[in-house]
Amino acid sequence: MEYQLSDYQTTVETAVLGLAERFRTPPMLHDESFVYSETLDAELAESGFHEVSTDPELGLQTAALVTMEIAKLPVCVEVAASTMVRPQFFPEVPRPIALADRTNRPIRFLPQAKTLVLIEDGAVKTLELAPSDVTPIASLFAYPYGRLSSEALDRAVARDVDANALRRQWQVAIAAEIWAALDGGLALTIDYVTQRKQFGQPIGAFQAVKHRLAEVAVLSHTLKWLTLRAASNDAPEDALIACGYAQDAATQAAHELHQFHGATGMTLEYPLHLWSYRLKALVSELGGADTQTAALADALWGAAA
Question: Cis peptide before 202, with omega less than 30 degrees from 0?
Fold first, then answer.
């Protein structure tokens, strides 16, 4: 399965790649496991990339492409919710956005977020955040995390929004972010096995390494097109397939990428964790792959069963 991008989409993709080029060098890390780029965040906002889904010539598929290329970078920035969720449902709320389906655990991007979007018990709420609402939490998952104060929820505003439609967009956004982390980590790994030598030749020349890398590449390629398909048609089943496949593939890919790097890949001084630990974080969002798979089975066969 292949997609042919339109001329408009190709133009946007080229512009995004140009913007991303200055941020491809992994940041120097000390005691932090992520570096949130306020510069990239501001440039994305000024460029108008967050609003591409509202253009009928571009749509949500182009928003997914933007998300995938920006989320692939080693620097951290909130792009998926602002590009794939906010324009469709809450274009007026300030960004960055944090998405949550529960508030009793740390929430990704909460320390930087200006708005929290919450899906809970089939209802949608939004909360404009004040600094006192959030307690940042140290994390190794290469994303900023924070905990929301219980008092802040009293200010949350109920929204007349279809929770299922919002969840579908979130599922596709998760798939896009997972593809980005997988493909970014794979690129670093290919570079490593090309340069790292053992027994007088690059370890990437050994057949066993080639085969396992090829399997990860197949995961990446399949996930990319599943994600773009789900973004193009807004079908519940396709969103569940993309998200479930992504979360299942993320676990396998993170393991394989670390295997190829050996002990080097386990150190925070080496940048692999900027992709692999993000994979580990994303596998649990919206209940994880088991939840998506169960929901898909229910959607396809539940009524007949």
Answer: no
Kindly report the backbone phi and psi dihedral angles of residue 227, in degrees, each rounded to the nearest multiple of 5, phi listed first: -65, -45
Of the candidates 130, 185, 44, the one whose C-alpha atom is nearest the C-alpha of residue 36 is 44
Strand pairing category for 145-148 and 134-137: antiparallel
Residue entry with tokens 């002990």: 263
- Terminal CA-CA length for the chain: 31
Concatenated DSSP letters of 97-112:
EEEES-SSS-EETTTT
**Contact status, residue 281 vs residue 143, Cβ threshold 8 Å:** yes
Q: What is the pTM of this model?
A: 0.93
Q: Which helix (H) or strand (E) holds 296?
A: helix 288-297
Q: How far is Cα 224 from Cα 27, in angstroms, rounded to an integer?
A: 26
Residue 237 near residue 295, CB atoms below 8 Å: no
- Note the pLDDT tens digit of each residue in 232-245: 998 999 999 999 99
Q: What is the mean pLDDT of the chain?
A: 91
Residue type, 91: P
Number of H helices, E strands in the chain: 10, 9
Quick check: helix, strand or coil at residue 19? helix
Q: Closest Cα to residue 246, out of 226, 230, 270?
A: 226
Q: Is the pLDDT of residue 21 over 60?
A: yes
* Cα–Cα distance measured from residue 42 to residue 252, given in angstroms and rounded to the nearest whole number: 34
Provide the pLDDT for residue 33: 53
Residue type, 64: A
The strand pairing partners of 125, in sequence order, are: 118, 158
**How many CB atoms neighbour CB 257 within 10 A?**
25
> Alpha-carbon distance 173 to 171, whole Å?
5
Q: Is the per-residue pLDDT at 159 higher than 70?
A: yes
Give the rounded percent of residues in the chain with a pLDDT score beyond 90: 74
| Residues 72-124 pLDDT 10s | 999 999 999 999 999 999 999 999 999 999 999 999 999 999 999 999 888 99
